[in-house]
């Protein structure tokens, strides 16, 4: 396989890089790559779950933006320009350097880069308070296939819509985002509560579903990590016997511990959250503690681009919009207990993210969603191909098991949790295709072939034009109202 890496360094763009750089300075025109039959892939942080930024089964050129990572925070203006290769850790560090009461509502992992992350939506512990990272994009610099550097105005409304949630890789090379910063209070509180099945985890997880997304204030995220441990509560290492499920409730509260304890006593006393189990700190330090680094870890850990070990895993995702009954949860536990190192990484939804229109940007996961589940199976890299196949089969089985309990028509998935099982798209005459990607693709055609433009509209096959991605949502709502009526 032919393989080359192009690295784009700091110096490549002008020092006044918050202005659109002149075209000649970017030299990212890929016509010569095309001429030689190379596919072009772009990598910012390299965290793609399926490795799409650095793996290809055809000869390819990799444009590596890891060194394109300047961050320019303008506290007076509540904005920042951040280049594609900057990590979330670097961004949070630079914001906190300038102000203790500014933050940005993006993901937890400090080594993920903004290039891929924000273009796929990007959520973190402030998703209930503020929505997703892509909701806070004010402008962007993007090189298109002709080597032109576009900004919000020159790329046009549809393209600017698409790159905020729909992924940017299909449209060009993203150089930088201009983002709006948000307010964070001077004191943020985090806490953890763990419970095994023997300690009532099923009851608690069942109740958590309606409390976390609907009853607590937007300032509070109660995320869940569900894994398998030995019955003596150490992380499971050996065989499959003698193990149990452990649910870890992770609290991130934009406010003092006292208030968090009060909220929990009112809404979820069974969890027994106590003030002495809470840690109060600044937003940026709470972020580090929330990640599991010991209290007192220096903030510059956020600048370390290799602070997380490499892992071999397969992941999938689902959104849930009605509580899973206890019997369904017990079935999930049975599935998890069959696997060696499974994890469910569950993020609570609701609050602000729910109230932003699903059409505003290309991130449709709003409205009724209560939480997002990331299913993960981990294994060691040294294991053989047959081992990978076994774990991948297990996660597909779990995904099938989940069908009755998760979003439907279409069953939705989170683009940032890349899953190539969903990548085979056929556009039919109808909206029959069940997954989010098909819905997104139909809308993305509009980006290139605006229906307002008669000539390009004509060039579209009737097949594609007949698809209306919003119809199915309307139908869902009608179905739901119909069902509710029947129940009444
Ligand atoms: C440990 C870990 C934790 C995570 N936590 C979260 C989380 O809390 N919240 C969340 O929302 N997501 C999370 N993710 C998912 C993460 O947001 C996505 O994997 C994201 O796409 C990573 O962006 P990247 O730039 O690091 O990855 P890359 O692998 O570099 O890129 C991802 C995709 O975007 C394309 N791309 C990247 N940069 C550019 C660019 N500049 N121009 C054009 N195309 C580009 C790539 O070609 C690829 O298709 C996590 C992932 C990992 C591995």
UniProtKB/TrEMBL annotation:
<dbReference type="InterPro" id="IPR016169">
    <property type="entry name" value="FAD-bd_PCMH_sub2"/>
</dbReference>
<dbReference type="InterPro" id="IPR036318">
    <property type="entry name" value="FAD-bd_PCMH-like_sf"/>
</dbReference>
<dbReference type="InterPro" id="IPR016167">
    <property type="entry name" value="FAD-bd_PCMH_sub1"/>
</dbReference>
<feature type="domain" description="FAD-binding PCMH-type">
    <location>
        <begin position="10"/>
        <end position="184"/>
    </location>
</feature>
<dbReference type="GO" id="GO:0071949">
    <property type="term" value="F:FAD binding"/>
</dbReference>
<dbReference type="InterPro" id="IPR006094">
    <property type="entry name" value="Oxid_FAD_bind_N"/>
</dbReference>
<dbReference type="Pfam" id="PF01565">
    <property type="entry name" value="FAD_binding_4"/>
</dbReference>
<dbReference type="InterPro" id="IPR016166">
    <property type="entry name" value="FAD-bd_PCMH"/>
</dbReference>
<protein>
    <recommendedName>
        <fullName>FAD-binding PCMH-type domain-containing protein</fullName>
    </recommendedName>
</protein>
């Amino acid at each position: 396989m032919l393989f080359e890496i192009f690295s784009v360094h700091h110096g490549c763009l002008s020092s006044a890089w918050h202005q659109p750089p002149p075209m000649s300075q970017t030299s990212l025109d890929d016509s010569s790559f095309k001429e030689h039959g190379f596919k072009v892939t772009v990598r910012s942080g390299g965290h793609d779950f399926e490795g799409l930024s650095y793996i290809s089964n055809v000869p390819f050129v990799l444009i590596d933006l890891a060194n394109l990572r300047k961050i320019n925070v303008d506290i007076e203006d509540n904005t920042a320009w951040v280049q594609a290769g900057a990590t979330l850790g670097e961004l949070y560090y630079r914001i906190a350097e300038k102000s203790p009461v500014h933050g940005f509502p993006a993901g937890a992992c400090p080594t993920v880069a903004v290039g891929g992350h924000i273009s796929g939506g990007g959520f973190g512990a402030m998703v209930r308070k503020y929505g997703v990272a892509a909701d806070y994009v004010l402008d962007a610099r993007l090189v298109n296939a002709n080597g032109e550097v576009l900004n919000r105005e020159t790329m046009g409304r549809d393209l600017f819509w698409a790159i905020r949630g729909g992924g940017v890789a299909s449209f060009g090379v993203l150089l930088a985002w201009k983002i709006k910063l948000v307010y964070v209070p001077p004191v943020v509180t985090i806490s953890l509560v763990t419970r095994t099945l023997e300690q009532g985890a099923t009851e608690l997880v069942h109740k958590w579903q309606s409390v976390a997304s609907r009853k607590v204030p937007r300032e509070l995220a109660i995320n869940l990590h569900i894994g398998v441990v030995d019955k003596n509560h150490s992380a499971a290492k050996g065989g499959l016997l003698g193990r149990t499920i452990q649910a870890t409730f992770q609290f991130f509260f934009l406010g003092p511990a006292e208030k968090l304890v009060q909220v929990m006593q009112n809404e979820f006393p069974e969890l027994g959250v106590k003030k002495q189990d809470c840690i109060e700190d600044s937003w940026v330090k709470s972020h580090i503690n929330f990640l599991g680094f010991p209290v007192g870890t220096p903030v510059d850990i956020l600048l370390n681009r290799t602070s997380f070990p490499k892992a071999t895993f397969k992941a999938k995702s689902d959104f849930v919009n009605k509580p899973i009954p206890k019997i369904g949860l017990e079935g999930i536990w049975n599935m998890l207990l069959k696997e060696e190192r499974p994890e469910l990484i569950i993020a609570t939804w609701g609050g602000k993210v729910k109230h932003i229109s699903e059409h505003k940007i290309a991130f449709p996961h709003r409205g009724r969603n209560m939480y997002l589940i990331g299913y993960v199976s981990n294994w060691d890299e040294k294991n053989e191909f047959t081992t990978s196949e076994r774990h991948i089969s297990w996660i597909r089985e779990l995904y099938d098991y989940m069908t009755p309990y998760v979003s439907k028509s279409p069953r939705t998935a989170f683009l940032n949790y890349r899953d190539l099982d969903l990548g085979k798209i056929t556009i039919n005459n109808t909206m029959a295709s069940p997954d989010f990607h098909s819905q997104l693709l139909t809308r993305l055609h509009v980006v290139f072939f605006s229906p307002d433009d008669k000539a390009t509209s004509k060039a579209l096959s009737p097949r594609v034009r007949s698809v209306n991605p919003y119809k199915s949502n309307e139908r869902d709502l009608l179905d739901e109202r119909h069902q509710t009526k029947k129940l009444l």
